[in-house]
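Title: Prediction job returns without error message
Component: structure pipeline
Severity: low
Priority: P3
Assignee: unassigned

Description:
Job completed but the reporter wants confirmation the result is attached to the right record. Sequence as submitted:
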Amino acid sequence: MNKKIILALESSCDETACAILIDDELVANVISSQIEVHQKYGGVMPEIASRLHLENVLVVIDEALKKANISMDDVTAIAVTRGPGLIGALHVGLQAAKTLALIYNKPLIPVHHLAGHIYANEFVKKLEFPLLAVVVSGGNTELVYMKEHLSFDVIGQTKDDAIGESFDKVARVLGLPYPGGVAIDKLAKEGKHTYKLPEPLKDGTLDLSYSGLKTAVINLVHKLEQNNEEINVPNMAKSFQDVAIKELLDKVALATELHQDVKQIVLAGGVSANSYLREQIVKQYENTDISVIIPPIWCTTDNAAMIAKVGSYLYDQNIFADLSLSVDPNWKIEDYKNFK
């Protein structure tokens, strides 16, 4: 079989996933989600996540191979998420990938998780450069300028909490279920912006901050409760979401002013599923020369298809690792070639 076949594994948080690309066509994308288990605890429990990855990793690999109708002997290379993510969870995927690479004598490709989220947009449309990637998730908030494929320049990032983390913490104080972003997005559609909240970081830079906004909501909720005042949860959700998304959009607007060569904006990460963000960022650039790509909903949560997509580009550049490869839960996207 003279084809480029990339088998990819993803296990950075609470999804165990395996995907297969044959000549860049996605032929299998299997995901075992743990969300229902972690919902009981109001967030991801790292040790439980690792144990569930151990239970599911061989299952998803076997199912992906069956869906693609190939064997491990047919695979050209194995791509795997090296970081960032939960250290124990990452280890499960990496050890599985290294074992397969050793047994079947296949090249091993380390992939940066956030690069995967950016490249998930290629399942919609080819990336055009220079572009601005707006990476928004539970653990990350970054503006990434890309001159070309696999060229990552972080031009802005959160100074404290990630936007997704703030959504989850605000949801928790409002008594909403995990994942908080989904619940807030849904309730905000029913609410009005009635609560006055502080606008986050306005310092002329491209950096962001969500800790102050999150704390302001938490303090306001506690104050209302102490005064026995009713909290209008949909209105609070709407008020918070408006301010949180506005800060992000303002920084994106500033980034495109400072980098006027940007041809395309891509959303990436779990918070890119937020319907208000999707609507507003498209609206912001609808009468400009900048195109906006919105990833399909299935690509906003963690999956291995996006890891396979990046793995394919890394394979073409002969970027491989040996079996001494270790995980890096704090791996920076600019260092995607640095894994020794």
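Comment from assignee: result matches the submitted record. The chain has two domains: 5-118+301-335, 127-294.
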